[in-house]
Amino acid sequence: MGADTKALKARIKSVDSSLHLTKAMALVASSKIRRAGLEMKKSREYASALQAIVDDLKISPELKKNPYLRKAEDQDGSKTRLITIAGDRGLAGGYNSNVFKLVSNYPKAQIIPIGRRICDRIDLPSVSSEYYGYEDAIGLAKSLCEDFREGKYDRLGIICTRYISMMAQEAEIRWILPLSADGEEQERHKSGMVFEPDEETVLNEAIPEYVAGMLIAAVRESFASEVAARRMAMDSAQKNAEQMMEDLELRYNRARQSSITQEITEIVAGSGK
Fold first, then answer.
1. Sheet of 80-85, strands arranged across
2. pTM for the whole structure
3. Residue 43: inside a domain, yes or no?
4. 114 and 85 in contact (C-beta within 8 Å)?
5. Cβ–Cβ under 8 Å, residues 99 and 86
6. Of residues 114, 133, 137, the one with CA closest to residue 124
7. Which CATH number covers residue 166?
8. Residue 162 domain-assigned?
9. Which domain range does residue 51 map to?
10. pLDDT tens string 22-78
11. 166-211 pLDDT tens trace
12. 163 in a domain, yes or no?
């Protein structure tokens, strides 16, 4: 019986330690949620403004032969590049695993990782998703745009996580290049805007900013999704740990009471001899 109480006490101590850890991680996630939400909102607005400019440009008849509007000829995915955004840490529910699952659908694509988890997974130098900034994005965007114009790849996409709510986030792929505009889209976005010196020059200058803006928006939204997922995961883990603590303490008290009762019985029996 003494061995049982000792083992239960050790388990209680272990669960209590885990409970303190989950509480601390939940507090850290909570402290980041507001900032992450504000940055996500601002980056969405910036990306939306860039998208509107590009939508007006890509419907111009003068741009039909522009490299950024050429039709993708990638048949097997080998000429596809995917910027893949995951987290820097784990313990965020299915956040990282959902991204990895989506990446597995493109086995021949060239992966450009952002986030320590995806960098470690494909054995490339770590790039933090939490601290990824505009300078990082515009540098990568210029390089990608130059390679696209030279025909080194046919499609560019971003695998990221869409923030739906605190309780729901969804991994998705956003195709960035090439640009495309069908007849219906041309009618919808026709604004009569005049571009100087001409549409071709403006589009060529705008695309790197557009790619960088889409990338930053995806990174910010993914990070907001990560901290929300971690907060929910830690809340769930905390509730489970608290329930386990209650069960273990009940079992410990019963075992301790049984041990005390047995000792008293043995003392009484011994004194009667």
1. 110-114, 80-85, 155-165, 168-177
2. 0.81
3. yes
4. yes
5. yes
6. 114
7. 3.40.1380.10
8. yes
9. 37-234
10. 777 777 777 888 899 999 999 999 999 999 989 988 888 888 888 999 887 777 788
11. 889 999 999 999 998 665 455 545 556 677 778 888 899 999 999 9
12. yes
The torsion of the CA quartet 96, 100, 103, 109, rounded to 10 degrees, works out to 110
State the Cα–Cα distance between residues 81 and 166, nearest whole angstrom: 30
Rg for the chain (alpha carbons), in Å? 28
Cα gap 131→113, rounded to integer Å: 14
Q: Could you tell me which residues come within 8 angstroms of residue 248 by beta carbon, excluding any fewer than 6 positions away? A: 8, 11, 12, 15
Distant-in-sequence, close-in-space partners of 186: CB < 8 Å, separation ≥ 6: 59
Residue 188 lies in a domain: yes
Structural domain total, the chain? 1
